[in-house]
Design goal:
122 residues; alpha+beta; 25% helix; globular
Length: 122
């Protein structure tokens, strides 16, 4: 399982302008963003390589964005299966290929670059 403390440190340094606070609970890193949304970075402790990076904006605009590699049968047609990307729809209507790198630290950085590009900062 990737080192969540290292990932937390990297994110709080590289993305300090959008991060309010962080906490680690078991094998999940929760990042509270200044825009009042949050991100959960999860790595399975049982299945090597299984992950989910989830940006929850449902309280803001009823959307969420998630990259994960859970092999759900309904996403078998996605070219990068089992990797897939939930692109904002709270009803799972917009699921497409995942662009994230397979290396954990790189993938988290890529996900936070995606988030930073979409957050409106003053």
């Amino acid at each position: 399982m990737p080192d969540l403390i290292l990932i937390e440190r990297i994110l709080t340094i590289e993305f300090s302008e959008i991060i309010e606070a962080t906490e680690i609970i078991h094998n999940k890193l929760r990042i509270f963003l200044k825009e009042e949304s949050f991100v959960d970075i999860w790595f399975s402790s049982r299945i090597k390589g299984r992950y989910s990076h989830h940006w929850d904006r449902r309280k803001i605009d009823n959307t969420f964005y998630r990259h994960d590699n859970m092999p759900h049968k309904k996403w078998e047609t996605v070219k990068t299966f089992p990797k897939h990307f939930h692109n904002g729809s709270s009803k799972d209507k917009d699921v497409k290929e995942s662009f994230l790198n397979d290396e954990p630290v790189t993938s988290v950085r890529e996900f936070f670059k995606f988030i930073k590009e979409r957050i409106k900062t003053p």
